[in-house]
């Protein structure tokens, strides 16, 4: 080990310095497209962990939760981020990325935040509710294979909306909405969504909320929960907006060294103030939300941190 590397490790935790021989020299966190919350949040916690552990690490643009599960499972990435719906499908071998192949080498690491499903239109579109969306409307659902692209089309079909399906990065879709090339963007991302915040600076937009009946219908059909987008999330909101949401978790390759994942989990869970500087969605990135994982096995290193800090994870839920 070089003196420079030793100095870097010394800046991290004592655990990192004492148990680093079997650690990778660097790591990558799979995020999603630019303009979305995953990219900002994931790149941020990657940098935080890299600084705390004294090794090289960063975020990588990907297709989002489904692709992250596959890349982590295959060993292409050390870490990633996913939502519980895609995780359940992946474990069952129903992932659209790898149909018939259970992606069981991706383990839960720590709770991130809830992903609300919300709809954005231009103020002058005449669309004031989901039922107002005209037949054949061009709707952008985010990157292909993302949580939004996987679930939002099915949700809108359940609610009787007929549409022309479009995909792309959130930034690209925001530009298309502003230019009149699409009619609606159906967002599923942590709030505030950077692309929406940028849109409302540049033009007048409207956030469309679910009615109580629409919310109940979607909750009955899909693995989502009731959610309210707080009024202070966007300038365009006059009050809370009714929505549905799905939990997100950070994931780690199950065969990564226990001490490495323990140290990475510790870095995030014990630096909430720094996580809040990365993205406001981090207000939900707290240990108490560990029980929102009802799907994935826990990585032994992550489970060790939670158990040491008083949270109960049964042995049969640890990989």
Radius of gyration: 20 Å
- Intertermini distance: 31 Å
What would you call the shape?
Answer: globular
The chain-level mean pLDDT equals: 92
Secondary-structure element order, N to C: HHEHEHEHEEHEHEHEHEEHHH
Structural class: alpha/beta
CATH first level of the largest domain: which class? Answer: Alpha Beta
CATH topology group of the largest domain: D-Maltodextrin-Binding Protein, domain 2
Number of helices: 12
Protein name: C4-dicarboxylate ABC transporter substrate-binding protein
Organism: Sediminicurvatus halobius
Signal peptide: 1-18
InterPro entries: TRAP_TAXI
Quick recap:
Helices cover 36% and strands 21% of the residues. With 319 residues, it is an alpha/beta fold. The chain is globular.
Features:
319 residues; alpha/beta; 8-stranded mixed beta sheet; two-stranded parallel ribbon; 12 helices; 36% helix; disordered N terminus; signal; TRAP_TAXI; C4-dicarboxylate ABC transporter substrate-binding protein
Tell me about this structure.
By secondary structure, the chain is of the alpha/beta class. It folds into two domains: 3-112 and 249-317, Periplasmic binding protein-like II (D-Maltodextrin-Binding Protein, domain 2, 3-Layer(aba) Sandwich); 115-246, Periplasmic binding protein-like II (D-Maltodextrin-Binding Protein, domain 2, 3-Layer(aba) Sandwich). The chain is 36% helix and 21% strand. It is built from twelve helices and ten strands. The chain has helices at residues 3-10, 14-18, 37-53, 65-74, 84-91, 147-158, 170-178, 194-202, 212-221, 258-269, 272-278, 300-308, and strands at residues 26-30, 56-60, 79-83, 106-122, 137-140, 163-166, 184-188, 205-208, 225-229, 241-253. Strands 3, 4, 5, 6, 7, 8, 9 and 10 form an eight-stranded mixed beta sheet that branches. Strands 1-2 form a two-stranded parallel sheet. Strand 1, helix 3 and strand 2 (56-60) form a beta-alpha-beta unit. Keywords: Signal.
